[in-house]
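Design a sequence for this backbone.
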C-alpha cells in the first residue's frame, strides 16, 4: 500500500512515500521551514523521484499533534484535502509517538519532548515490547518539573528524545538523544484504529492557544 506521510507538527518538515515496509523517498529537515511554502513542493518532488502520480497514493498518514498550532493546521488541512480529493483513507498518528518511533532502544523508556514554552513541554512515555512501540501513558502537556518528578517515580531508566530534548537538556533531568522527525517511521505505527473521518478530524493540541487564553481571560473579567 503506497502511503504519503506528512509531519509538520513542529518547526521541521518531514514528508515521505512508502510502500509496505519500503521507504520509496523521503525529505527530512531539522531546520525551521515555512511549511505552507515548502510542503507541497517537496511532496511533488518525491512523486517525481518515484515516478508516481498523486493518484497512485493509496492512503495519507499525518502527524496529528501535539505541536505547533500553525504547523499542525497546515499539515492536517493538506492531509484532509488530499484524502478527500483522492477518496483514500486518512490515518492520524501522535506526533510524540512519531518521534519515539525514530529511536530503536529497548533498554529505556522513551520520552519524546516538544518545547511548549514557559517551562512546559508536550511529552509522552513509550517503550518497545519486541518490535512494537507501546504507549505507557497518554500524551500530555506538562511542566518540566512535573515531568521530571513523574519519571523519577517510574524507577526505570529513561531517555529524553527529539530535537527539543537537546535544547532543554539543562532543565530535563536525564540523558537526552537528539533526533529529527522522520515521517516514514509512522508506517510502523498505523493500524485500522488510526483511521479517522476526513470531515470531522482535527489536530490534537492538548492545550488552548494564546489567542483563546486571552479571549477566555477577557470573558472571565467581564
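Sequence:
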Amino acid at each position: 500500500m503506497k502511503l504519503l506521510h506528512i509531519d509538520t507538527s513542529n518547526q521541521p518538515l518531514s514528508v515521505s512515500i512508502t510502500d509496505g515496509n519500503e521507504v520509496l523517498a523521503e525529505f527530512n529537515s531539522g531546520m525551521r521551514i515555512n511549511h505552507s511554502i515548502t510542503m507541497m513542493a517537496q511532496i511533488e518532488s518525491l512523486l517525481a523521484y518515484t515516478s508516481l502520480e498523486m493518484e497512485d497514493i493509496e492512503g495519507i498518514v499525518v502527524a496529528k499533534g501535539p505541536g505547533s498550532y500553525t504547523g499542525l493546521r497546515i499539515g492536517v488541512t493538506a492531509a484532509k484535502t488530499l484524502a478527500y480529493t483522492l477518496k483514500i483513507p486518512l490515518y492520524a498518528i501522535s506526533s510524540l509517538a512519531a518521534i519515539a518511533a525514530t529511536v530503536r532502544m529497548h533498554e529505556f523508556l522513551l520520552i519524546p519532548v516538544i518545547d511548549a514554552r514557559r517551562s512546559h513541554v508536550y511529552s509522552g512515555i513509550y517503550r518497545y515490547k519486541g518490535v512494537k512501540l507501546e504507549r505507557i501513558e497518554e500524551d500530555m502537556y506538562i511542566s518540566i518539573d512535573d515531568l521530571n518528578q513523574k519519571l523519577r517515580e517510574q524507577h526505570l531508566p529513561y531517555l529524553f528524545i527529539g530535537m527539543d530534548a537537546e535544547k532543554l537538556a539543562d532543565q530535563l533531568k536525564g540523558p537526552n538523544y537528539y533526533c529529527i522527525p522522520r515521517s516514514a517511521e509512522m508506517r510502523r505505527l498505523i493500524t485500522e484504529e488510526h483511521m479517522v473521518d476526513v470531515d470531522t478530524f482535527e489536530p490534537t493540541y492538548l492545550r488552548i492557544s494564546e489567542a483563546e487564553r486571552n479571549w477566555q481571560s477577557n470573558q472571565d473579567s467581564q
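Residues 209-217 have pLDDT under 50 and may be disordered.
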